[in-house]
Design goal:
The protein is mainly α. The protein has one domain (5-170, 220-381): Na+/H+ antiporter like domain (Na+/H+ antiporter like fold). It is built from 15 helices and four strands. The strands form two sheets. A two-stranded antiparallel ribbon has the order 1-2. Strands 3-4 form a two-stranded antiparallel ribbon. A hairpin with a 2-residue loop joins strand 3 and strand 4 (240-241). Helix 14 (336-345) runs antiparallel to helix 15. The protein is globular.
Length: 383
């Protein structure tokens, strides 16, 4: 039987989560092997492709813009014909996502206020869709299928908030001239849509202009990917949905190539030389772990319970409050976007290494806690 678009999406996310986990393990093993120096040297290789950036930055600024472009497409799909279109259905996960961003950031800030670690306040606010849905997939039919959609919607709203945070709080030395150039490129794309351009390739030249101008403006270049995704045309060509077809084509590229490559380039932290000991005694690492584990669980779960009590939304069919708390714990799997924000928040290598340890530990604990809560819920309702 042919799968629905949502089933295909969830399947790809689950499989992508496995590939992402493997890439993370490879990065950690490589960075801590006798070839650890080669690991560092590889990502520092300079590539002059019009912009003189090293391989690490081409991945983080260039390839990840494609990842965020697909995020933009996903957000647009949800707004146009998905869960975010129906206000009553969308209210509960939206409120839960807001709580899941605000509380971790608040806990982190309370622990690090007035210290050099404070700029990383947004690190524990992120949820990794691939890993979270991947963990749910491992549970199979032990959980209701509608819980996956509920968590997916929370993660997409989380992405919207994370994108806004990156754009507003992690911009450097803004250049109004370059920003205006990027805006003009976006206006050009709107004009293309008005003129009836429906082929994605027709937008590529302007998309490159927007990305370059955004990169030079001081706003992180990945924001260009999101904005371009939101401006892509909808409708049909020869009976094919333009938006869904473009998302389908690029989703596997990001899930199985770009995001794992990002993990390979960013997750490799040398755990020797006292790094683990430094992390164990570091407020930064504990602030991230606390934010991901306690902040996400309490923020998502607590906000959802308050919304239900206030009558602001309804639970999906088959999902009860116990399931919500399990999903809330899985929301603490930050990883990809958390690593991304850590690279933006800090320039000191030691801080970044400690932040990575906190992200890895917090994500692992959150994943294990989410599985435990969901399996416990199943045991409670089993005959």
């Amino acid at each position: 039987m042919k799968r629905t678009a949502l089933a295909e999406f969830l399947h790809d996310e689950a499989a992508g989560g496995i590939v992402l986990a493997l890439a993370t393990v490879v990065a950690l093993v490589w960075a801590n092997s006798p070839l650890g120096d080669d690991y560092v040297a590889l990502w520092e290789t300079k590539l002059d492709l019009g912009l003189e950036l090293d391989l690490h930055h081409w991945i983080n600024d260039g390839l990840m813009a494609i990842f965020f472009f697909v995020v933009g497409l996903e957000i647009k799909r949800e707004l146009v014909c998905g869960e975010l279109q129906d206000r009553r259905t969308a209210t509960l996960p939206v409120v839960a996502a807001i709580g899941g961003v605000a509380l971790p950031a608040l806990l982190f800030t309370l622990l690090t206020a007035g210290t050099p670690d404070a700029p990383g306040w947004a690190i524990p606010a992120a949820t990794d869709i691939a890993f979270a849905v991947g963990v749910l997939a491992l549970l199979g039919d032990r959980i209701p299928a509608s819980l996956k959609l509920f968590l997916l919607t929370i993660a997409i709203v989380d992405d919207i908030l994370a994108i806004a945070i990156i754009a507003v709080f992690y911009a450097d030395d803004l250049s109004i001239l370059w920003l205006a150039g990027s805006a003009l490129g976006l206006v050009g794309m709107v004009e293309l849509r008005r003129l009836g351009a429906t082929r994605p390739w027709q937008y590529v030249p302007l998309a490159i202009v927007v990305w370059v101008a955004m990169h030079e403006s001081g706003v992180h270049a990945t924001i260009a990917g999101v904005l371009i995704g939101l401006l892509m045309p909808t409708g049909e060509i020869d009976g094919r949905n333009v938006l869904e077809e473009l998302e389908d084509r690029l989703h596997n590229v990001t899930a199985f190539a770009i995001v794992p490559l990002f993990a390979l380039a960013n997750a490799g932290v040398d755990l020797g030389g006292g790094t683990l000991q430094d992390a164990a005694s570091s407020t930064l690492a504990w602030a991230i772990v606390l934010g991901l584990v306690v902040g996400k669980l309490s923020g998502i779960g607590g906000a959802a319970m308050l919304a239900l009590r206030a009558g602001w939304g309804v639970l999906p069919d088959g999902v009860d409050r116990g399931h919500v708390w399990g999903a809330a714990a899985l929301g603490g799997i930050g990883f990809t976007v958390s690593l991304f924000i850590a690279q933006l928040a800090y320039v000191d290598g030691a801080q970044i290494a400690i932040a990575k340890v906190g992200i890895l530990v917090g994500s692992l604990v959150s994943g294990a806690l989410g599985v435990l809560l969901l399996l416990r819920r199943r045991a409670q309702v089993a005959p």
